[in-house]
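Work Package 3 (structural annotation) set out to generate three-dimensional models for the target panel prioritized at the project kickoff. During this period the team completed the workflow that converts sequence records into C-alpha cells, so that structures can be stored uniformly alongside our sequence database. As a representative example, we reproduce one entry of 165 residues exactly as it appears in the project archive.
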Amino acid sequence: MIKLEGIEKMNDKQKLEYLLLCLEGQLSSESDPLANVSNASALIYAIIDRLNWAGFYFMRGEELVLGPFQGLPACNRIKLNTGVCGAAATTRKIQLVPNVHDFPGHIACDSASNSELVVPIIKNNKVYGVLDLDSPEFERFTELEVKYFERFVEKLNQYIDWDRI
C-alpha cells in the first residue's frame, strides 16, 4: 500500500528513494505490463511535486503513441526527431530541458509546460518508448532526478515485457 502522509516532509532524494520503493512493490506484485505502467505514471504524479504531466509514449512503427499518463490530455502521436520525446527516442539519450521554449521543434501539448525530462525506454538494444515528465516551472528537473528516473526505467525493464504493451 502506498502511503502519502508525511511525504511533504521528505527531501527530494527521500521522495525519489520512496518512489523507487513503491515502484518495486507495484511491479513485483503484478505481471500485467499495462497495469504496471499505468500505476508507474500515477506513482510519479503522486510522489514527485511540481509536475503537470507524467506518462509514457510507446513506439508504434516510426512514431511514438500516447500511453498511460497523469495530467491533461496530451498529443496522441509524436514523430521521431520531433520534440523532446522524439529526440530522446531517436538519440537514445535522456533529454533534460530547462526551458522547452528554447528546444528546437518543441511540441506544446500543454502550453503550461516550461521544462521537461524525457528518459528513453531501451531494452535489449531496442527502443520501446519514453518516460516523459513535464513541469510548469522553468529549470524544474535536476541531475539527481535524471539519475533516479534512469533507475526508474531500469526497474521497469527488469519486470516488464515491453513487447506485450
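DSSP finds four helices and six strands in the chain.
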